[in-house]
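tool_call predict_complex ligand=magnesium ion
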Amino acid sequence: MSTVEYGIEKLGPQVEADLSEPPATNDLDHMRPLPRISIHAFCESEETMRLMERCEADRRMAKVSFRINSGSILAAANMFASSPTPNLIILESAASPDRLMGELMELAQVCDPSSRVVLIGRNNDIGLYRELMRNGISEYLVAPVGMADVLGAAASIFVDPDAEPLGRSIAFIGAKGGSGSSTVAHNCAFGISHLFETETILADLDLPFGTANIDFDQDPTQGMAEAVYAPERLDEVFLDRLLAKCSDHLSLLAAPSMLDRAFDFGHDAFRPVLDILTQSAPVTVLDVPHAWNEWTRSLLASVDEVVITSVPDLANLRNTKNMFDSLRKLRPNDKQPHLILNQVGMPKRPEITPGDFCDPLEIEPIAIIPFDAQLFGAAANSGRMISETDPKSPAAEIFSQISHIVTGRAALKKQKRAGLEKVLSLLGRK
Ligand SMILES: Nc1ncnc2c1ncn2[C@@H]1O[C@H](COP(=O)(O)OP(=O)(O)OP(=O)(O)O)[C@@H](O)[C@H]1O
Ligand SMILES: [Mg+2]
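tool_result ok
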């Protein structure tokens, strides 16, 4: 049923009168809920603070992780110098145009370039507006503003059908069965959600044997099976019902892990699932089983990043080389997959050294994870992640580094050194 059918005309004159009270609300009627983004608002005035609180309570914000602080742009810069930046920063400032640009410059130095910024100012000045837009500010609203203005600005960035897709998709696949790809995928999904406080969805595509439900100590659900077999029902509301909450910012679309049927899929079977996932959260981590068929190839061709996990032996090396060659043809305009060497240094096992493994591939691994039967075994058997089981272990630090690299945050450190002006121009741009 279309939203139009629920329109005021159908509800009769009594409701029409009620709805006409705050005029701004009418503008919200047809607005779709915001996806799983994080928003942090910095308010200078009491009035804006109260407005943000009203926005936070709105049903369209139910999935949003929303923080409200009193403070200026400089307070935001101070805070983000030592904490992750959200998807959207809402700022209020009464500063003059000159001071405004200076303060935004300070914020830009500490801000993730993918964060978007909406500014509420006092200067009704078209020149200033143009300069702000040129420098990557997503929206400039002149005070006084209402709920419809704020939510509308957020929706135009994250809900608009013409907006860029919200989420990045990162697929993890092993070069050989049992190389540890799922373990790496789960720990990275947890790391991304935890370290950057970014809403993350982990999708387990190993329908018969997936282990994400065990690794996160979740009751088995049919999440992924229902999603892939009912693409016509797949919308944000249906997806919400299929997701299991693993931690503050991490949700799981779990595999059924049952053998009551065969799981054969066509070329594009996972396309609708991938589309809805990337519209719903800033990061989607896909745990892809070790297989090379129509749907795995098509999925690997369509994601933003591919991460291959290999163990340092000859079969893994042969498979890794073949996968790199094939993926180059499938993704001619993308950068190479990331390579992770896992289970390195297993006692008594003859291994190919990382150097000899990587030379023929002409690629540096983004991580070399040591073999640690005790730590990985303890984590797997207790339904916890490595950083929860032993936060001080080398493996925990390595998973943190991988989380930075696959989300582009390691490269960001270099950008920060590149100069303030460039960074300001990146602010708010994808
Ligand atoms: N660095 C490591 N040290 C010790 N054990 C590890 C390490 N990495 C993974 N493991 C263990 O190896 C086993 C296989 O891991 P996992 O299931 O993640 O592999 P996979 O590549 O996803 O396998 P599949 O081919 O079934 O998808 C698990 O028991 C896991 O705990
Ligand atoms: Mg696996």
